[in-house]
Amino acid sequence: xxxxxxxxxxxxxxxxxxxxxxxxxxxxxxxxxxxxxxxxxxxxxxxxxxxxxxxxxxxxxxxxxxxxxxxxxxxxxxxxxxxxxxxxxxxxxxxxxxxxxxxxxxxxxxxxxxxxxxxxxxxxxxxxxxxxxxxxxxxxxxxxxxxxxxxxxxxxxxxxxxxxxxxxxxxxxxxxxxxxxxxxxxxxxxxxxxxxxxxxxxxxxxxxxxxxxxxxxxxxxxxxxxxxxxxxxxxxxxxxxxxxxxxxxxxxxxxxxxxxxxxxxxxxxxxxxxxxxxxxxxxxxxxxx
Amino acid sequence: xxxxxxxxxxxxxxxxxxxxxxxxxxxxxxxxxxxxxxxxxxxxxxxxxxxxxxxxxxxxxxxxxxxxxxxxxxxxxxxxxxxxxxxxxxxxxxxxxxxxxxxxxxxxxxxxxxxxxxxxxxxxxxxxxxxxxxxxxxxxxxxxxxxxxxxxxxxxxxxxxxxxxxxxxxxxxxxxxxxxxxxxxxxxxxxxxxxxxxxxxxxxxxxxxxxxx
Lengths: 289, 213
Fold this sequence. Notes:
Oligomer: heterodimer
Distance between the termini of chain A: 16 Å
Number of strands of chain B: 0
Shape of chain A: elongated
Structural class of chain B: mainly alpha
Radius of gyration of chain A: 22 Å
Largest sheet of chain A: 6 strands, parallel
Helix content of chain A: 40-55%
């Protein structure tokens, strides 16, 4: 076996080991990576930035813990931005393990918002986030397509009570709030086909202004909806989350994780190039024979 | 009658829901909301079926000492412990108060989250290995796929220096032109297929869902 044969048939354990080393070293080595902002992420931020005190949005946290590395940072950054600006949030989840995700977001953000902070040059005084006044968490119901359609009619159809068992009509921010008509927008953080259900049933049936934050592998699939105007913004993968964090001036895990992803990608490209050099050299050698 | 009744119900309700969609009236909305409730209630029965199925399969595995039967014990223990804590030691059945149960939260935060995150993270290693072996310039189409993958991975790479904006523009073109065209064609094709299948079910041409009997 010559060098070219070896280049194209490397034992996969070497690939695993190299990737593990790159991930650990770049995790421990603290440096920042410049983040370039794309138009589709900027449009999400611009829409959030234009929200006024007292406005209301619907935030759908449709992912399980397996996608939290990519999507949690977006949820954190946007939810904190809303709470700082006193924008009210209706949280919901169409993912069966999403309840824990929302619960975690609310607890952590409530803690963060209780401290003074300055984002993008604007000072925000720390305050207490109150359930029912600043936000409501509707909880989880199975069968996303049906739940989205039912919420479009009235939130009370699928969710007569909120996650904590309180009747919706007795919750201050739900008084006068019937359906998506009272929400300035819907943002869906999704790690599955729920995103497409929001486009079909949420935007299609009720015309809700919709933005998506999806996992990296789903990103390319969502571009047609961006081009057709069915969604006004798209943040895909860890990169999308890092861009949101940068725009919100609220660096977190996504911006931190970008250096790991950057070098992991470089390593994968190195292996792909190496394999192809070996492959082409072997093919030429065989042709010459 | 065993076959005719379901076919009739599907026909009537299928057409009723299609007609309802095109009538923007309060009564029509009420009908829609009413059936939404019904669909969710019926759907919940699938959950009970799932729990029964998982319990039976796991129990049989343990009972007959099938291969890896030890894992079935862990599955059953996890299932019933989460139900037990989720109902707050069987004290709360009608409210989701159990979701705040100390043990339920701890199990979720310290077992479910790390397990799911770890499983998903392992994909990175398999994807790296698969990319190394699969992305080979064997033909023109394979080469195009390879180039597209490299451009997308490198699009925001700051180490490329002056080449980075070019790569970014190229990746935007890739996503907005060839990707968009292909994806739209697929979406429209799938949509038409769904309409055709739905009509076949409503009209009773497609009857596979009724089973063999």
